[in-house]
Amino acid sequence: MTQPVTRIDEKLADVKTKGEKALTLFLTAGFPELHSTPAVVLELEKAGADIIELGMPFSDPLADGPIIQQSSAIALKNGTTLRTILSDVKNIRKSTEIPIVLMGYLNPILRYGAETFFADARAAGVDGLILPEVPKEETARFNEMILGNGLSNILLVAPTSSSERIEEIDRASSGFLYCVSTTGVTGADGHTPAQAYVRRVKSHAKKNPVLVGFGISTSKDARAVARDCDGVIVGSALIKRIMRGRDKRFREWVAEFKNVLR
Questions:
Q1: Does 64 participate in catalysis according to the annotation?
Q2: Which residue, 35, 90, 225, 251, has most beta carbons within 10 Å?
Q3: CA 118 centroid distance within chain
C-alpha cells in the first residue's frame, strides 16, 4: 500500500533540511483539565515543539512509568475518553498544522470499534498512531485500517531488539521509528540511553528517521542523544513540570530543549 506524505514526513524533512533534530513532546490528553489539551499544545508549539504525541489515558498501561500513570488517572477522572480526545484534536486543527500522534492501548480502541476509530482519527486531524503493546507480527491486523486512512503506523524497537529485528520493524513502520532507550518504563530517573545502542538502531534503520524516547529528562540528555539520531521524545519530564504547577513557565523550558537540537 502506497503511503501518502503526512505532516510527520513533511515536518521531519523540514527539520533535517534546517540541520536540526526534531523535538517531540508527549502530553497526556485531558490532563491537567478535561479540555486543556488544545491550549497546552499551542503553547508547546510556540515554545519549539516539532511534533506532539498525545497519550490516550488507560487504566491498565504497560509502558507508562509512575508520572504518566498519575497523569492518566487524573485525565480519566476528568472524564477523558477517545471521543473527547478526538474533539480536542479537531479544535487544535483550527489553529495549527503541527503533526499529532496518538499513543495508547488497544482496549479502548477495540471498544470504540477499531475501523471507526482510525477513520474518525484521520477526520479529526490525527497523523499517526503508536500502539506499544502491538508487536510487528500483529500489525497486519490494523495496517489496512491505519494506513488506509492515511495515518502513520509508528513501531518501536528496544535495546533487546537484534539488528535483524530492527531492520524488520523499520520496514514495517511509517512516519518514524521509535527507539525506546530502556527496557523499563517511561520516566526512568537517572537513565542515559546507551549511545552504542542508539547508533546501532540508526545504522540499521534505512527507511525511517529515528526518534529516541524514554528517560530523556533534561536538555543535556537531549543534546547527547541527538548526536546519533534524528530527534528526541520528551514526556515524563514535561508532565512532572505541569504537575508541579510550572506549566505557565514551560515555554522557556521547552525552548531550552529545542535550542540544543539546533
A1: yes
A2: 225
A3: 17
- Four-residue CA torsion sign, 239, 243, 244, 245: positive
For 83-135, how does the pLDDT look when each residue is reduced to its tens digit (9 = 90+)? 999 999 999 999 999 999 999 999 999 999 999 999 999 999 999 999 999 98
On whether residue 2 sits in a domain, the answer given is: no
Nearest CA to 145 out of 129, 156, 134 is that of 129
196 within domain boundaries: yes
Residues 6+ apart with CB under 8 A from 66: 187
53, 88, 228, 230: the active-site residue = 53
Which tens digit of pLDDT belongs to each residue from 167-182?
999 999 999 999 998 7
pLDDT attached to residue 193: 61
Residue 24 covered by a domain:
yes
Q: What is the CATH number of the domain that holds 195?
A: 3.20.20.70
Q: What is the pLDDT of residue 188?
A: 47
Q: Can you tell me the distance from the alpha carbon of 11 to that of 27, in angstroms, rounded to the nearest whole number?
A: 19
How far apart, in whole angstroms, are the C-alpha atoms of residue 80 and residue 45? 22
Which amino acid does the sequence have at 113? G
Residue 111 neighbours by CB under 8 Å, 6+ apart: none
Residue type, 8: I
Strand ranges, E, within the chain = 22-28, 51-55, 100-103, 128-130, 152-154, 156-157, 177-180, 210-213, 231-234
Residue 10 annotated among the catalytic residues of the structure: no
**Model-level pTM greater than 0.90?**
yes
**64, 88, 127, 247: which is the annotated catalytic residue?**
64
